[in-house]
Design brief:
Fumarylacetoacetate hydrolase, domain 2; five-stranded mixed β-sheet; 18 strands; binds manganese (II) ion; alpha+beta; eight-stranded mixed β-sheet; 6 helices; about 230 residues
Length: about 230
């Protein structure tokens, strides 16, 4: 084995009901995957297909952790999402074979500096600083598909300080999970340890220091974070 000049830990996610953790290799995300959300973002849901972007693997934020309000933004947003954990490698996968590559599912929150994302869109610039900051990839423990099956429908919701902000059904995704996996696998080889955030429904909005944000999906439990610290530009 090599030794490293500056060693760091492999990012990982808890697995529900197991001592073993899921080691994370890459985090992919789908944008614009629910028609009602596309409308609230000013995008024609029928004109363009969803898109992919990514976050650093060490941007993960476990259930129950505090999220420090990130710097350089005035508009931190929540985005409740279903997360797919990949357990088997594959590229150029057929839709019919895609679910065989899924290890499990989790509740996620794709935290976003919305002001930076809007500015990046306007100027045709990358989304990295809008989407890839520390703690931006909220994730609850992964439920293995061997236990919960494959999720084709079910309620996805989010509350801020107990008030409902998002409520939708997983069945309303534009690209469903098999389609996402098949499409993404035409761009890159999926490997065990990859996570895919599958997009958020309508109702996205801001968070402020002191807020408690809870997301949930039928059968997968909940994901809770408190926003701490101060807004500092
Ligand atoms: Mn998202």
């Amino acid at each position: 084995m090599h030794s490293y000049v500056v060693p760091h830990a492999v990012p990982s996610v808890a697995v529900f009901g197991e001592d073993r953790r899921f080691p994370v290799r890459r985090i992919y995300c789908v944008g614009f995957n629910y028609a009602e959300h596309n409308r609230e973002m000013g995008r024609d849901p029928t004109a363009e297909p969803p898109i992919f972007f990514s976050k650093p693997a060490d941007a993960l934020l476990a259930d129950g952790a505090d999220l420090p309000y990130p710097p350089r933004t005035k508009n931190l947003h929540y985005e409740a999402e279903l997360v797919v954990a990949i357990g088997k490698a594959g590229s150029r996968l057929a839709v019919a074979d895609a679910l065989g590559h899924v290890y499990g599912y989790a509740v996620g929150n794709d935290y976003t500096r919305r002001d930076l994302q809007v500015a990046a869109k306007d100027k045709g610039r990358p989304w990295d600083t809008a989407k890839g900051f520390d703690g931006s990839a909220g994730i609850a423990p992964i439920h293995p598909a061997a236990h919960v099956g494959h999720l084709r429908s079910g309620r996805l919701w989010l509350t801020v300080n107990g008030a409902e902000r998002q409520s939708a059904d997983l069945a309303h995704m534009i690209w469903d999970v098999p389609a996402i996996i098949a499409e993404l696998s035409t761009y890159i080889e999926l490997r065990p340890g990859d996570l895919i955030y599958t997009g958020t429904p309508a109702g996205v909005g801001p968070l402020r220091p002191g807020d408690v944000v809870v997301a949930g999906i039928d059968g997968l439990g909940t994901l809770s974070h408190r926003i701490v610290g101060d807004q500092t530009l």
